[in-house]
User: Fold these one by one.
Assistant:
Number 1:
Amino acid sequence: MGQYEKLKGRVAVVTGGAGGIGKEICKCLSNEGAQVIMADLSESSAANAIAEINSAYNKVIYHELDVVSEQSWHTLYQYVEQRFSRLDILVNNAGIYLFKDIENTTLDDWNRVMSINATGVFLGTKLAIPLLRQNGSGSIINMSSTSGITGSPFEVAYTASKGSVRLFTKSAALYTAKDNIRINSVHPATTDTSMVEVLWESNKDLKKTVTENVPLGRLADPIEIAKAILFLASDDSSYITGTELIVDGGMTAI
């Protein structure tokens, strides 16, 4: 930790916090002084992630969360209010990926992806607003994707869900601007995490093809996405709301 901590005294919830990008977000925010609640469905994965993070910074704790359950969100926020009496930052990071074109996507596929990636963001954002309003300010960061900016023939449900996050973020940001609650979306390109490793295993040439299509010539590192989240969570972005921060190595510039 540095002498100046950008998030000192603030309380942050990070959903999907046990995964590759989520873990780096938790680490990055806690490193800047925030008390972080790692909200995740998998307690075992979260325990491993927290053990790694807290070896350096004792500022991350776990709470179970099923992002598609309204009651689960209520339970989480009740815990946050009772223990910390405030919420300053929400990072809606939880999500799933599906590599299927429209003809091979079932209705169950569609509903599952939309419920986790889009409905989960809606519930988390809606129910966080009263807590953030009590502070007179706050920052919500919703994880979208470059797939929420451009189309793809092979990820129809994923693209639709991430596009939903993008425009939902703008609508919600306009609503909460009067309360000084900022809401923005982050749009990473393919990031080097265990979630995408499954794709490489099933298609050995895909990683090479994806990497070659990135102008910077490499995949994103999770810490690079986490630092973008930190920027939007901190006062460094105090005049930014309702917009998308694209972290894609130049892909959407093509």
Number 2:
Amino acid sequence: MQQLSPPYRKHLESFVDHLTLERNLSPHTRESYMGDLVRYLRYMEESERTVAGITPADIQEFVQELHSAGLESRSVARNVSAIRSFHKFLVREHTLPSNAAENLRQPKPAKHLPTVLTVDETFRLLEAPLEERPRRTSFLRDKALLELLYATGVRVSELVNLQQGNCYLDDGFARIFGKGSKERLVPVGRSAASWVRRYQQELRMKLSNRDSGDYLFLNARGSKLSRMTAYTIVQRCSVQAGINKTISPHTLRHSFATHLLEGGADLRAVQEMLGHSSIVATQIYTHIDRTFIKEVHKTFHPRG
């Protein structure tokens, strides 16, 4: 909450008091609401909106950003619920004259196979930060971030919460805490390990301050990198690489799994690396693999 400016912080503190004293919600639920609303209000601050100036279109745009950043439908629905409750509370307290979230509806994502990069597109994306080197001092962080996303297939939330103490680069793996604080060990290849080390030695040490904690990836102010910033990095580098697909950090997770299966990896091993509790979730990548094979056949077979 300290990340917010005083006006926003004041409104959020009042709402949290309401959740505690009037709705008697559990500490876990309050923390979830608070985390979702801090992200929401920071987004509005960055868009130079006051609380009173937030429009329904602004809120809808934020929800769409959550989808684009790869959040699962359940997580987006929780964010929508928090936003609705927050605005309803502000109207009830006469802080706002009307509820901009009153008609907020969660967009239903289309049912389709996730976007996957080809190996060539992936390599071009990974090289994009190096092309930005002359004009962007953060190129080392961005390069290490992209390499680690593709090397491990981690979710963006797992990436931004990764701490240096859980990176065992000499041994070639990282300890990842996923959904429900489930822990797994994920291999880290030589290329990713090398770039992460270089980022730590040449840039992270300069960015670090007392607010940095042990988080691996930091922003220019030395704070933990946000999911939205990770999303922006991936998008910017995809444009730099000339990739004509709408992608997010989750696209690298999809590509990681698909490329492993295309190369003959065992489905159970991929499930373990992705941190899926059920193999059913991992099987979607076998469908992507078959789609890829059909496309190859159609393109290159004489009678395709």
